[in-house]
Each structure stands twice: as C-alpha cells, then as structure tokens.
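A student in our group prepared the protein record below, which I am reviewing. Thanks in advance; the entry in question is below.
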Amino acid sequence: MKRRPAAYGSTPSIVLDDPALQFLQGIWRLENALERVSKRMEDTLGISGPQRFALRLIGELPGVGARELASALHLHPSTVTGVVQRLEARGLITRISHATDGRRLHLHLTPAGKRILRPTIHGTVEHAARATIRSHSTAKMRAAVAVLDRFSNELLNE
C-alpha cells in the first residue's frame, strides 16, 4: 500500500495492492461521483440523474408501464412510483390509463420532458457516460459492462 496526497473525490490517496479492494475503491468513488453530479443536476436542471435516466427510458419506450420501468432501472416499484409522481408533478411526463386495466398506466413524455432530454447538456451523468464511451473501444465497454453485471449478480446472490 502506498500513500500520496489527494483532494476529495480525486484519484485515491491510498493505492491498494489487493485487486478486490482496488475494484471496490473504484466502485465507491463512482457511487460518490454519481451522487455529487446528480445533486448538481438537481440544483441546476431541476432533475436528478435517476430522474433523467427514467425520462430517457420513457422517451425511448413511449407507453412503457411503471413495472417495466422499475425493471429497466433496477429499482423497487415503490421507488419508481415516487420518481414517476415527481416527474408528472413537474409536467415532464403524463400517465395514461390502460384501455382495459385501470390499474396499469402508460408513461409518455410531455413537450417539456422532451426538451429537458437534450443530449448535449453538459454536466449530466449521461454526458459523462457518452464521453467515457467515446474514449474506449466497443470491446472494452462490453467487457466493463460484463464485469459490472457479474459483480451485481454476485452481490445479489450472496
């Protein structure tokens, strides 16, 4: 283990020898960065990172149901209910009842929801993800996604 000075949120000041601990250190740094950028997005855009991701999915899948949205976001349905309520209260989505099953809803973007999804907005989690992806090969990105999926599965199966 080596120590070097570092600012909060920058490259870690302690360099670990254990690959598992290095991996966890990177995951925790990523989680912290996601939280910080999401908070900044809320302050500047009025929408958090998870809310923007939910909007993006609704835009990609017009008419998606809340249950399918929860599955795609890997969130509990009750969490998604809160996200959907906040997006609807802000006028970014509409909920349309299913023709034959009043308990099911179809989610759609409003014009305001479409405007907030401009893909070039700097300072969003999505913008950082796109910049990262552009700087790596498709094979490297697929490998990264595979590692993250495997880690998620290991955590959920413990």
